[in-house]
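TICKET: design request
STATUS: open
ATTACHED STRUCTURE:
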């Protein structure tokens, strides 16, 4: 065996021993929150398509029309091949939706955070990131070369202590957080954080990947990034900010400059989805209402977003519970370290407007039977 394969096998054996190995499972998604696996139709609670828009016929028609008219791929970076009108239209709509001067679309949310953070911060700067922030916030921070410190999750006291201690030495400072935390479903105290940031002249970046369209915006940050791949049912990432910041990133964000533009069909799909988000408020309210129905049934604290974690502790326990639910027709994936801290393996239950009340109640009943004494 080559040293390369020996290295891979050794690392995989360690993951297996700790119940942390991940495997891709062939799954076909369909309408009404359905997922087909091994010839069985499951109800999916493991998807970020919060409004079911990736399956919406209007969104699909918009993507099909764009693809028929403009083809499948973007051809090159937007700075090289030219700026596609579908992307311009989407950026204008995103900026209008968020109430900012401008917006910039990236290839994905992950790429957006890599590019934004590393373009705005560098050596001699300070980045403070919520300890439960998404992997791409940390990756962007590392790429920037700035000093990066984590503050305890949603702990403004800790954030202020770190600002008081380290801000003076740094040229510029950024605070990175999420509007809705992807694995916990809780929300950042943004109004208070923005006041603290202003006091210490720090720039707040809010990752709105799981908030757009499904929770109220509340306080707005100068850097509002997000993804087109969850509520908007498409693919891609974005930043909404001032015109000056967008112009700078168009020049400096390496994950924008040196990568191919988004396919026009993805932009058209996201644009059609944004129309639906804005014109169908009852649909947008549904995932949170279903999440609250679920937490009430289980006697858990009221859901703050369409994401409800059920923390079970060890990875094997989470895997076993997920498997037992699958046997009953529910797809609820187990989330294990390093996605979440050690000892906090969990089921992450994600609600969607495409689910029915009966499906939600069915999952609640199955969980009460399989795992009484639940906590979030
Ligand atoms: C909080 C958060 N930020 C960013 C991303 C990355 O977005 P994308 O999937 O568009 O790369 C995700 C999830 O994938 C996320 O959960």
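STATUS: resolved
RESOLUTION: sequence designed for all positions
ATTACHED SEQUENCE:
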């Amino acid at each position: 065996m080559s040293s390369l394969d020996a290295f891979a096998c050794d690392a995989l054996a360690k993951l297996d021993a700790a119940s942390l190995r991940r495997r891709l499972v062939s799954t076909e998604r369909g309408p009404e929150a359905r997922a087909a696996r091994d010839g069985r139709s499951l109800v999916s609670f493991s998807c970020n398509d919060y409004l079911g828009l990736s399956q919406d016929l209007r969104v699909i028609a918009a993507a099909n029309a764009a693809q028929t008219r403009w083809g499948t791929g973007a051809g090159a970076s937007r700075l090289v091949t030219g700026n596609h009108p579908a992307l311009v239209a989407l950026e204008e709509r995103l900026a209008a939706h968020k109430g900012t001067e401008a917006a910039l679309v990236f290839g994905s949310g992950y790429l957006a955070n890599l590019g934004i953070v590393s373009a705005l911060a560098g050596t001699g700067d300070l980045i403070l990131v919520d300890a439960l922030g998404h992997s791409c916030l940390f990756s962007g921070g590392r790429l920037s070369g700035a000093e990066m410190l984590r503050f305890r999750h949603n702990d403004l006291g800790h954030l202020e202590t770190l600002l008081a201690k380290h801000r003076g030495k740094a040229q510029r400072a950024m605070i990175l957080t999420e509007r809705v935390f992807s694995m916990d479903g809780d929300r950042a105290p943004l109004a208070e954080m923005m006041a603290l940031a202003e006091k210490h002249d720090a720039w707040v970046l809010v990752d709105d990947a799981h908030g757009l369209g499904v929770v109220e915006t509340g306080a707005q940050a100068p850097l509002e990034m997000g993804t087109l791949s969850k509520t908007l049912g498409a693919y891609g990432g974005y930043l909404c900010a001032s015109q000056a910041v967008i112009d700078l990133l168009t020049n400096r964000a390496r994950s924008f400059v040196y990568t191919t533009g988004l396919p026009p069909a993805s932009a058209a799909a996201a644009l059609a989805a944004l129309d639906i988000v804005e014109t169908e408020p009852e649909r947008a309210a549904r995932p949170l209402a279903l999440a609250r129905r679920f937490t009430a049934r289980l006697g858990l604290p009221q859901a703050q977003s369409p994401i409800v974690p059920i923390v079970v502790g060890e990875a094997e326990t989470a895997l076993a519970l997920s498997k037992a639910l699958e046997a009953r027709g529910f797809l609820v994936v187990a989330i294990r370290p390093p996605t979440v801290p050690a000892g906090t393996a969990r089921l992450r239950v994600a609600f969607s407007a495409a689910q029915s009340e009966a499906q939600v109640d069915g999952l609640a009943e199955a969980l009460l039977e399989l795992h009484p004494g639940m906590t979030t």
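CLOSING REMARK: Residues 108-110, 134, 136, 178, 182, 207, 209-210, 227, 229, 237 surround pyridoxal-5'-phosphate (CB under 6 Å). The domain at 19-48+281-370 is CATH 3.90.1150.10 (Aspartate Aminotransferase, domain 1).
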